[in-house]
């Protein structure tokens, strides 16, 4: 499939590609493919949903490199000395930063308490109320979008600055990604609109009433921005010749710490990043609606794809390899 055919295929799609907004691909620091659909421009931002988690993993890496976080085995409660632990709760004291990054932290709920957390005045503290439980640390993978909110609180307590400011100065600016602002509203109606509205968004990040960013979703980026982040991972923490994240952390972040089950396509899981194949150097930060950062060390390519709300689209790795990479190779 060449570029013209790919453009037409996405334009006329009524399937999983029908919500696709942008594709951008980098090789050797150079844009080798870029296109957009549904009235979007290349520079427009989209809520990239859980790709936000992949960015949070990189921000945690920067904080670790600088010594603000002592190590991934540092206890979560070290960062919240004033938090009043529930009576009888002991296992919360065993949870580490690594447990958050690998989604192996334990929680006291069956399904994520969205209403309880997202109507609170401090989402980080609200999630801490659910951390721990009777089972303790089991090593079981438990996908927890709300749980990652604790990581935003850790970065803020560790660095002494708001997560949005830390990200702008140490991550977005060095990558040439536009400065981001907090969204500034967290009403039920606004949250619904943030997910469902199909119009381009500002360069913003959803936030709670404390102006702390949502760590598991809500970051708005363009496909070009996603491809830049992929280029950073592809080059082991370097971007434009400048060290942004340590090579050792990128290696640890993309290492296969867990083997996931059928629900997650039997992929491997690192620190909030996926390794889709056991025997290939391909990595991805994956979000709902088909948002993705795809990194292939074999092809020396990074690809970003954005899409407006359309649930349960998780075929983008396959789509990139079957349709986008051939269009890139055409050049």
Gross morphology is globular
CATH superfamily label: DD-peptidase/beta-lactamase superfamily
Q: Give the ordered list of helices and strands.
A: HEEEHHHHHHEHEEHEEHEEEEEEH
CATH class: Alpha Beta
Low-confidence stretches: none
DSSP summary, beta strand count? 14
| CATH architecture title | 3-Layer(aba) Sandwich
Number of domains: 1
Short structural summary:
By secondary structure, the chain is of the alpha+beta class. 33% of the residues lie in helices and 15% in strands.
Element layout with pairings:
Blueprint: H1 3-12, E1 20-27, E2 30-36, E3 46-47, H2 51-65, H3 97-101, H4 114-118, H5 123-128, H6 149-159, H7 163-175, E4 181-182, H8 188-196, E5 204-205, E6 220-221, H9 223-234, E7 238-239, E8 242-243, H10 247-254, E9 258-259, E10 268-269, E11 274-275, E12 282-286, E13 292-296, E14 301-307, H11 316-329
Helix pairs in contact: 2-6
Can you describe this structure?
There is one protein chain. The chain has a single domain (3-66, 156-329), classed as Beta-lactamase (3-Layer(aba) Sandwich). With 331 residues, it is α+β, with helices and mostly antiparallel strands. The chain has helices spanning 3-12, 51-65, 97-101, 114-118, 123-128, 149-159, 163-175, 188-196, 223-234, 247-254, 316-329; strands spanning 20-27, 30-36, 46-47, 181-182, 204-205, 220-221, 238-239, 242-243, 258-259, 268-269, 274-275, 282-286, 292-296, 301-307. Strands 2-1-14-13-12 form a 5-stranded antiparallel sheet, with helices on both faces. Strands 9-10-11 form a 3-stranded antiparallel sheet, with no helix packed on it. β4 (181-182), α8 and β5 (204-205) form a beta-alpha-beta unit.
């Amino acid at each position: 499939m060449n570029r013209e055919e790919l453009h037409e295929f996405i334009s006329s799609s009524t399937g999983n590609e029908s919500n696709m907004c942008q594709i951008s691909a980098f090789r050797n620091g150079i844009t080798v493919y870029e296109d957009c659909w549904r009235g979007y421009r290349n520079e427009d931002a989209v809520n990239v949903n859980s790709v936000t988690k992949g960015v949070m993993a990189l921000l945690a890496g920067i904080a670790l490199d600088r010594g603000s976080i002592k190590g991934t085995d540092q206890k979560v409660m070290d960062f919240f000395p004033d938090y009043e632990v529930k009576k009888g709760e002991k296992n919360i004291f065993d949870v580490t930063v690594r447990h958050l990054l690998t989604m192996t932290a334990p929680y006291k709920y069956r399904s994520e308490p969205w209403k309880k957390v997202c109507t609170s005045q401090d989402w980080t503290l609200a999630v801490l109320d659910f951390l721990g439980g009777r089972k303790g640390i089991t090593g079981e993978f438990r996908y927890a979008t709300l749980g990652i909110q604790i990581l935003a609180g850790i970065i803020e307590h560790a660095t002494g600055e708001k997560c949005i400011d830390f990200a702008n100065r140490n991550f977005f600016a060095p990558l040439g990604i536009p400065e981001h602002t907090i969204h500034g509203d967290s009403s039920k109606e606004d949250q619904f609109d943030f997910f469902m509205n199909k119009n381009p968004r500002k360069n913003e990040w959803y936030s709670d009433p404390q102006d702390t960013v949502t760590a598991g979703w809500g970051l708005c980026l363009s496909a070009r921005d996603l491809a830049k982040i992929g280029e950073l991972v592809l080059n082991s923490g370097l971007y434009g010749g400048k060290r942004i994240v340590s090579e050792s952390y990128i290696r640890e972040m993309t290492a296969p710490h867990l083997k996931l089950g059928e629900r997650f396509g039997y992929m491997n899981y690192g620190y909030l990043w996926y390794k889709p194949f056991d025997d290939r150097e391909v990595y991805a930060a994956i979000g709902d609606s088909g948002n993705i950062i795809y990194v292939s060390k074999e092809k020396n390519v990074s690809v970003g794809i954005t899409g407006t709300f359309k649930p349960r689209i998780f075929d983008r790795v396959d789509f990139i390899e079957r349709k986008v990479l051939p269009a890139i190779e055409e050049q």
